[in-house]
Design goal:
heterodimer, A: 270 residues, 16 strands, 28% helix, globular, B: 317 residues, alpha/beta, Rossmann fold, 2 domains, nine-stranded mixed sheet, 15 strands
């Protein structure tokens, strides 16, 4: 059995994908007015909780820190994570962060993770398989590169043993077993577990847990290194795709399959 | 002329169409070179010449495939330095994006993913928020790294072919140090169908399939299509999770998407709304999928699809 575990889970406050989503403002950033804890991050949090519970949980000195970077509303993703079971919450928030691309985001997160690990470095940094809004999936890999750590993305199972991790990764044509030394950056898929819901006890307990707010100054990052100024890419234009319109709708009266083929032939798709 | 480096990981026996697309885009931006990993077969070397590659690079190490991402990014960073490339093009697969991500940090280069087109000045066109927006973006750094979606352009050979020489790139010995290593690989049985994200036609099923993908697979096979599924169908265990199309699965952009027994909830639409033509079959006339279908059939997929399959076979004699 290894010593106590310290896991940092990255959680993101994202627009609810069940509703239409919009890009707004000069920088074409995502409108976050109807936002929730990213569904995909719940799997990472659950994986972290299962790992520490197997080692005696919080009582045995294990920690799961939920870290979110984002504007004021992002603290809600941290609160929800505490209700689900994270032991501590950290909100990295600074006006200068607005409009950061993946490179600038990973720079700020790497600095925050180093700051949180100043005394005891984290053993594991866990993320969801993607954010459901930005969708670039760049941040975990860029974070790993900045921290000089191995990355294991899309883990469908995850075990820790001593100083190393073993994960399963399912691809289209093969399934791989991966080993990596700790610490490591790991992203987990929605196949790894069934995330728990916060219960009444968890919601009450969360009220007593600490949420630390960090600014860029706290983590030693200059405002010019992040935001639009520190980004290496710029979004120049964004346009809503014209909505698709309904075409021909028929009710099957026994020959719809043939009509379907005629439609495909007319569209030169056969 | 700017130098453009195309990364082709394990080109195999024949170059994939997506690799030919990258080479065609590279020529439109400048002077193309190719960094590959793995074996280089004669046929592939010939195709690279036909598509105008001016130089080829290979890694000094032959074990990069044993590791995830990191060492390949180290190799590419060295190849970019040797070649003097200012644009790097890679495929938009999960691994392609991660290699691009780490490469971007190593080079201090802006990375743009999900690219569907590139203008000569480097402006990249992409689709975002699951295809509900199109945007343009540009790297503000001296080097740009772009990952390009398949089926973005029609591949065209160069007017004048080349016979490029191969240079070996020293992969730093430290490249594999703090890396995740693949210790075992289990191949899955091949379906013989095209790759879902690259397929010209996709036939996808949802809850309405009720456990039986047979009629979809038969239609897919006469059309040369890939088979996809909604999350309801993959969660029910009727088909593998790698077939999932939608918000938490794959995004596809085929010429034709045939949706069968899928309601068309917003998370499902997210994965397929950029398809050129959408055909929907559903028993429920109120299904939202009919709001976006170019051709919709209110009916029983177990009757409609087999009838269509038979009709296609009949027409082809």
């Amino acid at each position: 059995m290894e010593e106590t575990l310290k896991i940092i889970v990255l959680v993101k406050h994202v627009p609810d994908a069940q509703f239409d989503r919009h890009l707004t403002g000069e920088g074409h950033t995502t409108d976050r007015s109807e936002s929730i804890l990213s569904e995909l991050d719940e799997y990472a949090l659950e994986a972290a909780l299962q790992l520490i519970e197997a080692r005696g949980g919080e009582a045995a000195g294990n920690k799961v820190i939920a870290l979110s970077m984002g504007p004021a509303g992002a603290v809600n993703a941290v609160k929800k994570s505490l209700q689900i079971g994270a032991t501590e919450g950290v909100h990295l928030s600074d006006d200068a962060l607005a409009g950061s691309d993946a490179a600038a985001t990973s720079l700020a997160l790497a600095a925050a993770i180093r700051h949180l690990g100043a005394e005891t470095p984290a053993d594991l940094i866990l993320t969801g398989m993607a954010s459901t809004d930005g969708e670039t999936s760049l941040v975990p890999a860029q974070l790993a590169e900045r921290l000089g750590l191995p990355q294991v993305t899309f883990a469908a199972s995850l075990e820790l043993d001593g100083g190393k991790l073993t994960a399963r990764r399912d691809g289209d044509s093969h399934s791989d077993t991966i080993e990596a030394p700790l610490p490591a950056v790991v992203s987990v898929t929605d196949q790894i577990n069934d995330p728990r819901y916060p219960n009444f006890k968890g919601i009450m307990a969360a009220k007593k847990k600490t949420i630390t707010t960090l600014s860029l100054a706290d983590i030693g990052v200059d405002a010019s290194q992040v935001g639009r100024a520190g980004s290496w890419t710029a979004v120049e234009t964004a346009e809503a795709r014209p909505p698709r319109t309904a075409g021909t709708i028929i009710t099957d009266e026994g020959d719809a399959g043939i009509q379907l083929v005629e439609f495909l032939a007319a569209q030169k798709l056969l | 002329m700017p130098k453009v480096l195309v990364f082709i990981d394990n080109p195999g026996q024949v170059l994939k169409k997506s690799s030919l697309e990258l080479l065609t885009i590279a020529r439109s931006l400048g002077e193309p070179a190719v960094a590959f990993n793995g074996e280089l077969h004669d046929d592939v070397a010939r195709s690279l010449g036909e598509y105008g590659a001016q130089a080829l690079y290979r890694p000094s190490a032959d074990d990069l495939d044993d590791y995830l991402v990191g060492p390949k990014a180290s190799y590419l960073a060295a190849a970019v330095q040797t070649s003097g490339a200012t644009v790097v093009l890679a495929e938009n697969s999960a691994e392609g994006k991660e290699i691009a991500a780490r490469l971007g940090i190593k080079l201090g280069a802006g990375v743009i993913t999900d690219v569907v087109g590139v203008e000569p000045d480097g402006t990249a066109h992409k689709s975002v928020l699951a295809g509900s927006y199109t945007s343009t973006a540009k790297a503000t750094t001296p080097v740009a790294v772009l990952t390009v979606k398949p089926n973005s352009i029609t591949p065209e050979p160069a007017v004048t072919g080349t016979a490029p020489a191969t240079t070996t790139i020293e992969v730093p010995e430290t490249a594999t140090a703090a890396s995740a290593r693949i210790t075992a690989r289990n191949d899955k049985p091949a379906s013989g169908r095209p790759d879902l994200t690259e397929a010209r036609i996709v036939v996808a099923g949802g809850r309405g399939v009720d456990g039986d993908f047979g009629p979809l697979e038969e239609l897919a096979d006469v059309l040369g299509a890939a088979v996809g599924a909604s999350r309801a169908a993959t969660d029910a265990g009727w088909i593998g999770h790698d077939a999932q199309v939608g918000q938490t699965g794959k995004t596809v952009s085929p010429q034709l998407f045939i949706s069968a027994g899928i309601s068309g909830a917003i998370q499902q639409k997210a994965g397929m709304q950029t398809a050129k033509v959408i055909v929907a079959v559903n028993k429920d006339a109120e299904s939202p999928v009919f709001e976006i279908a170019d051709f919709g059939i209110v009916g029983d997929l177990f009757k409609v699809l087999p009838q269509a399959t038979e009709e296609i076979k009949k027409r082809r004699g």
